[in-house]
Amino acid sequence: MEIYIARPGDNLPSVARSFGLEAENIQRLNQLSDPRRLSPGLSLVLDTGQTKTPRSVELCAALSPGAEGELLEELLPGLSWLCVRGGAVSPQAQLGLPEAGELLRLAAEHSVQPLLSLSNLAQGGFSSLLAHRLFTQPDCVRDLAARLPQLLDEGGYRGVELNFQYLFAFDRDNYSRFALMLARSLHASGHYLFVSLAPKTTVTEESPLCAGQDHQALGRCADRVILLCHDWGGPFTAPQAISPADRAAAAISYASSLIPPGKTLLSLSSVGCSWDLPWRQGEEGRPLPCRLAADMAISTGAEIKFDRSAQAPFFTCGSQACRRVVWFEDARSLSSRISLAEDAALAGLSLRTGDRLYRPGLSLLFSRCAGEKLI
Known about the structure:
Blueprint: E1 2-5, H1 12-19, H2 23-29, E2 43-46, E3 55-63, H3 69-75, E4 81-89, E5 95-96, H4 101-109, E6 113-119, E7 121-122, E8 125-126, H5 128-135, H6 138-155, E9 159-163, H7 172-188, E10 192-197, H8 215-221, E11 224-227, H9 245-258, E12 264-269, E13 271-277, E14 286-289, H10 290-300, E15 305-307, E16 312-319, E17 322-327, H11 331-343, E18 348-352, H12 359-368, E19 369-371
Parallel strand pairs: 3-4, 3-18, 3-19, 4-6, 6-9, 9-10, 10-11, 11-12, 12-18
Antiparallel strand pairs: 1-2, 4-5, 7-8, 13-14, 13-17, 15-16, 16-17
Helix pairs in contact: 6-7, 9-11, 11-12
């Protein structure tokens, strides 16, 4: 695969002629809804046939049972692990499993190891209070740990992914004890434990996202950790890159000082966000899939710019009375994150797709990485 950056005056036929390719194939590979126009700065993935042998790594993805059929068809054959979203834990440690029979069937068909994703999600987002109530009921947690292996076997899962975020700082040790209790039960029964970690760059960092996580303790009891190096930019932040490369590199460096890199998967996002301008504190952005972000740039005639430090694309569009800025991921930004994981000798990558297919990013990933099958 090759990445081409559109220049002023380019159109799909002219790009196709330059590389000896079919315009229709470029359109499909890049999910272009309007083949007549290209925005300057738009990254196009081109299948030129000149590819190196993909590097064998572990590839994971977090999906819900309602994920797009096209995404499942193109993604699952290349995965090692699948985190099935939708698992719910009550403050009394009662477990609810998602209706994921078809997703689990497809995972088995492609020799993908399914993990049940458990989180402190409640109505409105991650709930610090829900997690605190759970952690402070040790008898309930011990009962959950004892019952969990059988529940996983009955549901067809090989393990658990813990995705507990925005925890109270004073629950840091409580969360570590909770994870360790589950790890002992899961490992004794031959199951896996993954833990998703918010990005952190120093031991003293106390942002709400990561204050309740002890990276070293959680990394010690987990089989794999997923480093969530995205969502720096999102609906509840100021306009900025979703997954800035410089901050991701710092987070990888810190995690690698505490956790063996061979246990770490770096997350890749294919979600963007749009903010109204001028942005004011407290105003929410609007998330959108990357393919729609590219379509928005093309339909409004916006030039896509690229921030070198963040290694991320962005553009502004709209009238003077209603301006927007959009940050998103494209083939260039995803390529830089893949290189970060490779340079740090991480175990692999974990995809956060928003349940939507972003074919340019997926095609680029599979041209560089082959998911190990762990049978």
